[in-house]
Amino acid sequence: MEVMSISVIAAPLKRLSLLLLVLLQLAPVIDCLQQQKAATMMRASAAQLYEPFRKHPVLFRGAPFDRAWVHPDLRQLVELFSGDNVQVKETKGEDVASSTLNGSHSVVKDSTIGGTNGDQADKKQFCFNNEVEKFLRTETTDVYSFNCFDSSFIQMFNEEIENFYQMAEKENIPIRRPNSMNNYGVIVNEIGMRPMITAFQQEYIWPLARVLFPQQGFQLDDHHSFIVRYQSGEDLGLDMHVDDSDVTFNVCMGDVFTGATLSFCGMFGAPNHRKLVHVYHHEVGRAVLHLGNRRHGADNIQTGARSNLIIWNHNFEWRNSDEYKRRRHFDVYEKEEGPPDPTCVSYTHDRDYLAYHRQFPPNQGGKHFHGWCPPPGKEYDGFPRA
Fold first, then answer.
1. To bridge 302 with a disulfide, which of 22, 221, 258, 319 should be the other Cys (CB 3.0-4.6 Å)?
2. Where does residue 134 fall: left (phi above 0), alpha (psi -120 to 50 degrees), or beta otherwise?
3. What integer pLDDT is reported at residue 27 of this predicted model?
């Protein structure tokens, strides 16, 4: 009986080891592809499974978006923004109190652009004539609100969402969480409403965004659109955060509630990132439009229930720009100007949360392992050390 030589045995073992090494290196890629495939199948599955049960099929059609569903104020705003009723001037730190536009007195709104991470900010100065001021409310710098939807659309949309919840439970239709932070709601794109939302985006959001946010909103290529829901026994509010969005559209769709305000803080990476600048009070049918990288959070609801339709608008060209990538890096993150306002402190993201709050919210303490803010070296003077 012959004994096999070590070299004969070693060669196959070496090839097997190399194969195993390659498979181990590919495992994360394969896992990612499997997750993407599963998500795609879930999206297709949810839309297809729900199609026979749609209550209002008209909500699943594409362009044009029915003008009858749009509040007259927003229709008027789109017309005004398409003309010469808004002028934008960019200067270096100059303040203008008033101006004249088309022969009428105008109000000038100042907003910093290109300077949210510490470089000397340019000023974006909007000259709104009196007509625009009637329909567009400036809540704070780069945060605007306006009446958006007609009551008939709100009723029809809410009926459809409620119908989906019921049929999803009855027919085992898969529902994905809207995002990494909200536990209740539905991604409306995934149940077949993407064509309708895209039509609304292009016909009504973009005409405003391209003027109000010319750097981020000059074009809108895609969107992630979803419903969030707040009520007793479910999510009561939402921790401070920034959106994975270039321009965020947020409209209250109901219902009767108290509390549930929306607190706005500074821009991501700015010295006042965690300083409170405005508290917005939701009104059913009224939308708020803001940049995605402004820190904000949904304050706890006190009574009743609130639901909102949120559209995260994406501009691919902006996201591919060097300026966008620069702002995403911590190396341009500025040192905080001072201690944060307690309202603007996040239990999910902030390292000093317990310095401003006695304890974590119920069932939320485990999220604190994500704490990163402020980045090391960017802390305000007197930052509490562990």
1. 258
2. alpha
3. 58
**Residue 356 is inside which H or E element, if any?**
helix 353-356
| Mean pLDDT (the chain, rounded) | 84
The Cα angle at residue 268 between residues 110 and 323, in degrees rounded to 5: 80
Question: Which DSSP state fits 225?
Answer: E
Q: Which residue has the tokens 């803080």?
A: 265
360, 332, 383, 344: CA torsion to nearest 10: -40
Amino acid at 198: T
Distance CA 235, CA 308 (A): 13
Cα separation, 386 vs 372, in Å, equals: 14
Q: Please tell me the least confidently modeled range out of 182-196, 232-246, 280-294, 323-337.
A: 323-337
**Which residues make beta-bridge pairs with 144?**
138, 289
Q: Are 319 and 289 in contact (CB under 8 A)?
A: no
Taking the CA atoms of residue 215, residue 216, residue 221 and residue 225 in that order, the dihedral angle to the nearest 10 degrees is: -160
According to DSSP, residue 52 is labeled: G
Cα-to-chain-centroid distance, residue 219:
17
What pLDDT is recorded for position 361?
86
Based on its alpha-carbon atoms, the radius of gyration of the chain, rounded to whole angstroms, reads 25
Q: Token match 């304890």: residue?
A: 359
Task: Please choose, from the candidates 240, 258, 50, 307, the residue with its C-alpha nearest in 3D space to the C-alpha of residue 164.
Answer: 50
Residue 95: closest CA among 136, 143, 141? 141
Give 123-134 pLDDT, tens digit per residue: 455 667 778 989
Q: Any idea which of 22-26, 165-169, 199-203, 353-357 has the lowest mean pLDDT?
A: 22-26
Pair 88, 124: CB distance under 8 Å: yes
CA dist., res. 240 & res. 300, Å (int): 12
Query: Which residue spans within the chain are E strands per DSSP?
Result: 86-91, 98-101, 104-113, 122-129, 137-140, 143-147, 185-187, 222-231, 238-241, 247-254, 257-259, 262-267, 278-280, 286-291, 294-298, 301-314
